[in-house]
Design brief:
The chain is mainly α. 86% of the residues lie in helices and 0% in strands.
Length: 109
């Protein structure tokens, strides 16, 4: 496989991995998202370890635009999940404090 073809293949792999990450994020499978991110970083580094042939600049620019868009979608899903986890943590803390207060009142009776 030529360097040019290999770079195009790696870009396709990057897009595929990113789409898989979005599917896993939709399903709340954040461990799989993290695993795919490690793979994706390796592919990204390998993809751009060499210079981009002039013949591929437009194709690569378009692929990068798609990749950035998918990244934005992924980051939005991550923010929503993070906010949900933070809200659950706050609710847990409130409940734990309420139980502690209830037990303190009960013990004083």
């Amino acid at each position: 496989m030529s360097d040019q073809a290999q770079q195009c293949w790696r870009l396709a792999q990057l897009l595929t991995l990113t789409r898989q990450m979005l599917v896993h994020a939709d399903q709340g499978q954040w461990e799989q998202v993290a695993d795919r991110e490690l793979e994706r970083r390796e592919d990204l580094a390998a993809c751009f370890s060499d210079s981009v042939p002039a013949a591929n600049t437009e194709l690569i620019a378009e692929a990068m635009a798609v990749l950035l868009h998918l990244n934005e979608e992924l980051m939005a899903k991550l923010k929503i999940a993070r906010d949900e986890v933070m809200a659950q943590g706050l609710e847990y803390t409130r409940n734990r404090n309420a139980v502690g207060s209830y037990q303190a009142v009960d013990a004083s009776l």
